[in-house]
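Model it.
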Amino acid sequence: MSEETMKCPACAEEIPAGSAVCKFCGEKIASNETAAPSDAHSGNGVELYHPNAASLWSLLLTPIFGAFCVMSNWRTLGMEKEAKRSKTWLAVLSVVLGLSFFLFFSGPYCLIAFVALVLWHFMESRKQTQYLTENKIEYSRKSWKSVALKALAILVVAGAIDFALAAIFAEPTIDCSSNQAFKESAEVIVEYLKDEHGIDEDFAKKAEYDDLTKEEKALLRKIAKFQLFVEINQPSGDNATLDKEEVEKIDGMTASEILDYVDENCNGGLFQVFNERLG
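Modeled.
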């Protein structure tokens, strides 16, 4: 009668069942692996998420979804070492995606999140696919319904939080839809800039005693120049002083953008006198 064997989880070579160490690669065999014969990890009768499908779903439901599914598969197969590694991937992908959410899906972080997804696919998800194929593990495919609905719900909640944070922390913008909206949005921008840069009574005292840094003086000059720009201009109506092209260009600019635009582009007439007085 032939001796019962098992596959080494590291190199997939056949070794005697109950081995503590693989004679081919020297890998230590965990106790739950030594206690069963060669079909201990056959996967027959178990339900697993398809790792390739998990990668595809991750494009819609974020990389966290795919990482969770692959980690769940390793645990179902009883491979704790691989599950632990996959858990590390899950943590890394969560941090990367969390940063992209927190920074309101800024271009660089969206790119980093995509690169992280690609790396995870080739270094983790694909590795699981190869393991299942090489060991000829037969399994039934686990339903996506429950986990996908949970992931979608989490994504919706995260999106709502991100939208709320964006509304709270985003810079105000200049509104050129009417002369009244133009003036009011400019007032909001000035107040925002004062709060953002700590322009308060102490700041005013420093200015009175000419105790401001070069950067602080430049900021005050920019704000004052922007206020002059708003005071002498109107974007619409019979008395409009801004042409249609310029209105379309500045409409919707954030506080920092409109401040830089005015500073760089408005230097004639009253602005020239303004610049000469403030140096």
